[in-house]
Amino acid sequence: MTRTASRRGRREARGHGIKRLPWRDVVNRLPPIEVLSDDQVEAIHQASLRVLAEIGLRVLDGEARSLLAKAGAQVDETTRTVCFDPALIEAEIAKAPASFTIRARNPAKSVTIGGNHINFSMVGGPSFVSDLDRGRRPGTFAELCDFQRIGQMLDIIHTTNCSPFEPLDLPPETRHLDRYYAAATLCDKVWSASLLGGFRARDALAMVAIAHGIDEDALPQQPLIFGNINTNSPRQLDVAMAQGLMALARAGQPVVVTPFTLSGAMAPATLAGALTQQNAEALAGMVLAQVVRPGAPVVYGGFTSNVDMKSGAPAFGTPEYTKAAQATGQLARRYGVPYRSSSTNASNAVDAQAAYESEMSLWGAVMGHANMIFHAAGWLESGLVGSFEKLIVDAEMLQMMAEYLTPIVVDEDQLAVEAIREVAPGGHFFGSVHTLARYETAFYAPLLSDWRNFETWQEGGSLDAARRANAIWKRLLADYEQPPLDPAIDEALKAYVAKRKEELARDPQSAA
Amino acid sequence: MTRTASRRGRREARGHGIKRLPWRDVVNRLPPIEVLSDDQVEAIHQASLRVLAEIGLRVLDGEARSLLAKAGAQVDETTRTVCFDPALIEAEIAKAPASFTIRARNPAKSVTIGGNHINFSMVGGPSFVSDLDRGRRPGTFAELCDFQRIGQMLDIIHTTNCSPFEPLDLPPETRHLDRYYAAATLCDKVWSASLLGGFRARDALAMVAIAHGIDEDALPQQPLIFGNINTNSPRQLDVAMAQGLMALARAGQPVVVTPFTLSGAMAPATLAGALTQQNAEALAGMVLAQVVRPGAPVVYGGFTSNVDMKSGAPAFGTPEYTKAAQATGQLARRYGVPYRSSSTNASNAVDAQAAYESEMSLWGAVMGHANMIFHAAGWLESGLVGSFEKLIVDAEMLQMMAEYLTPIVVDEDQLAVEAIREVAPGGHFFGSVHTLARYETAFYAPLLSDWRNFETWQEGGSLDAARRANAIWKRLLADYEQPPLDPAIDEALKAYVAKRKEELARDPQSAA
Fold it and tell me: Which chain A residues are Cβ-neighbours of B265 within 8 angstroms?
């Protein structure tokens, strides 16, 4: 017996073996759901070109304005407004690749972004953390590390986020370095950089180069990381986001451009209007990346949802959200660029609402042929909370979706006419040879779902899905083993973090 | 102010006004998701024809065997096995209508079964009832009436079931009469008959004729009710179900034929095999209806799910279930008959699992273009429980699905370029004329979802979705008003129930 096998045996004996789907390239072979006609897609495209040509975007960063002006955009330096001719948009977007691969530290976990590939990503950005034991609270770096560890144990999560929630016990100027170190070393997957300012983006580029053992100059040869920017909808791009975008584009690393178009708040209170504005802002951001580096990998990010018109509160996983997700897929395909969507919900608890809103988002994203599905594991409370239990509920929903996308096999053996012949009318297939031959692998085995009968479930403590998720994440955390890392690389990463912390302490102005 | 308006005003003042979607004909204009290729559909069709021709079904009812023999089927009276030539199957199924309308007592609530129409139906058949106050328990007739009343208040539920759970305080031989009376008088919607035996079917036909004020002989002119039979999979049709089917078919009333093909238990442990067996059994049942009355309205019922291979427990809303639901739609469309699916789950609590399994079922059914979605409101615990809280959670999920299926409008006004022009970069659309013009109607207003921020939600008692559903069904019940019914019809229904109870008490043998 190998050491690993022996360890696995011991672990299962302690009841720690949690059945999960192994790593899988999730591919959606089904045609996308198209909620818009071709004419409607064209009408939204044309309306967004009018917005870009006649109204424009306010670009707060001077360098970005200057690059766009040089490329042919009309820039009004007084109002910092940039307008774009349709021809410029079409020409620049045409340079973006339709598909690319991001290499992971563990080559088996590299991801293809484009085509029919779907990549599920960890939640990113919440201010708070929660679990059933300690409730909702500001997060710490130690808890963030645990979150990453659990994410690493779940192979259905293809890429991780450097910030499943903010580690508020660390100083804001340097905590991105600790977050990057955690993402780069606790997991062996592709991770995302923070693009909130050029310095954070550049630190991510430096650290991912170290983690891969390559020179930073070699970065443009191969995507190794990605990042996301949000426009400050409506029609504005701030300095930090522009600088972050440009840093990644310059290094040939993929940038996701995601307008934050909440219909009724930061965008018109109609889906067609919100999609028009989203499209204008996404095109402008992707054009900026192409201007910085022609052919830079970009992703069209869609995040159109709506607000509760009574309170102004954001809503997620609504019917409007699902339609917007599928419509955005049509727009992204029109431009031949990969598409990013999200799995979202506005629930305050890991309950039925959290699940049905997430499912509505997920079906919107998956059948909209999103290539990256952000926030797919752990998002709660409109993105204010990273939840340990939701992470497990989501992993189950993602695994189920991945299994759903596995095609039905139809051949003589699977059609099973002989098996049907063997079983008497009113009999059962439990003991048939055909059944026994596929006993172990016939169906999806759940991570979280409890199919025991009521009495057994009740004897087991009547644990609902959230309570069971609580037990599962603890068992996964107990089982966690850090993926191997060359000690020299680990040392180099630590040294980089230490050096940069010192620099940022000495010269806070360098954080710009 | 009209009396109704005044009453509504009072009610909302008491805080009882629960916002719901008004009655709507739900139509799915999107193309169905097709998980099988045309060749695969044909392979399953051909395999099921082999099962029907070479292996056959055991039909326990002599009358059914005799009718099938007369129509050209091969009947072995020793084994009670009926085999069907492919030509017989094709010829008989071709007689079934592609679409039909079932008239409701309230004509505004009549339903079209076929085409792209979707009808959501109440849960039917559970043994138990549950709510958060009193837990899971045997149900009573009084509780069943409350369940019907709440169903009546929810317009998203198109048709009701005579038995959302068994009223175990009533004697089994006659309780169908009380259930029919409740369904016919507490609601004004189409309801389903119990087809467990010819006498129960005939009582439903008599009572629905009375409720509509027509002569029973006139029933074949117009569907007024429907019923469902399950084959005793594998490959068996019992006496009660055959008699129930024949009674409805004879009266020209729609019969749904639903094989109970749990893959790995009553059907092969492969999806292709389970679908082959399902298809064979559904075809046989639909042929029996055509033999009884050519052109009788029938519906292809799909219920293929899988078991947990370790315990044999049924599982629902699994990835396999979703695929089977969409594949079954393809089979039903091949035969040009309407399709029935279900919204199901195996959870023991109204929790995240209940919601995500139901959503997986619902997306399977809706995108499989099911025309009738049974158990769409209130089903819990693999169908063993009718849950008051799940009824509300489901109504929310159904309303969201109905809104999702509403097409996006794209025109100059909706594209909102002028509204985008008016709002400054980084500003907001809250006060814009474009937003104010659609303040009330812009977005779906939820029944159950809580979008308040965490602090407000916490101050309100931190109620999760199940707890909020508990409050909502009580408020709907308090608001319930019985739909108008001609007192003479009410008297006639009561008289029929009294007469039949007496007959069944005097001659229990007539219950056959």
Answer: 428-430
Residue that the structure tokens 């701030």 belong to: A238
Answer yes or no: are the C-beta atoms of A33 and B33 closer than 8 Å.
yes
**Closest residue to B268, CB basis, from A308, A420, A450:** A420
pLDDT band at B17 (very low <50, low <70, confident <90, very high): confident
Considering only alpha carbons, which residue of chain B is nearest residue A419?
B268
Give the three-class secondary structure for B503: helix
- Measured over all CA atoms, what is the biggest interatomic distance in chain B, rounded to whole angstroms? 84
| 3-state helix/strand/coil string of B314-350 | EECCCHHHHHHHHHHHHHHHHHCCCEEEECCCCCCCC
* Contact yes or no for B352 and A465 at CB 8 A: yes
Omega of the bond prior to B234 within 30 degrees of 0, cis? Answer: yes
Q: Which residue out of B65, B405, B451, B473 would a mutagenesis test of the A interface target, given it has the greatest number of A Cβ atoms within 10 Å? A: B451
Amino acid at B460: G
Q: How many CB pairs under 8 A join A and B?
A: 395
Structure tokens at A38: 């071709």
* Contacts of range A330-334, beta carbons closer than 8 Å, 24 or more positions apart: A330/A32, A330/A34, A330/A35, A330/A36, A330/A41, A330/A368, A331/A41, A331/A44, A331/A45, A331/A275, A331/A279, A331/A282, A331/A300, A331/A302, A332/A300, A332/A302, A333/A32, A333/A369, A334/A41, A334/A45
Instruction: State which amino acid sits at residue A146.
Output: D
Q: Do B416 and A351 touch (CB under 8 A)?
A: no
**B51:A400 CB<8 A:** no
Residue-wise pLDDT for B31-83, tens only, equals: 999 999 999 999 999 999 999 999 999 999 999 999 999 999 999 999 999 99
Asked whether the beta carbons of residue B356 and residue A351 sit closer than 8 angstroms, the reply is: no
Residues A263, B443: C-beta atoms closer than 8 Å: yes
User: Residues of A with CB below 8 A from B393's CB?
Assistant: 352, 356
Entry pTM: 0.96
* Token representation of residue B205: 């036909």
CB A319 to CB B403 under 8 A? yes
Which portions of chain A are predicted below pLDDT 50? 1-15
pLDDT in tens, A348-357: 999 999 999 9
At residue A508, the pLDDT reads: 79
CB atoms B465 and A352 under 8 Å: yes
Chain A partners within 8 Å of B136 (Cβ): 454
pLDDT digits (tens, 9 = 90+) for A471-489: 999 999 999 999 999 999 9
Strand arrangement of the beta sheet that strand A74-76 belongs to: A74-76, A81-83, A57-59, A236-237
- Residue type (1 letter), A442: A
Helices A352-367 and A388-404: crossing angle in degrees, nearest 10, is 40
CA separation for the pair A277, A235 (Å, rounded): 8
Burial of residue B257 (CB within 10 Å: 0-12, 13-18, 19+) is buried
Q: Which residues of B touch A136 (CB under 8 A)?
A: 454
Q: What is the ipTM of this complex?
A: 0.96
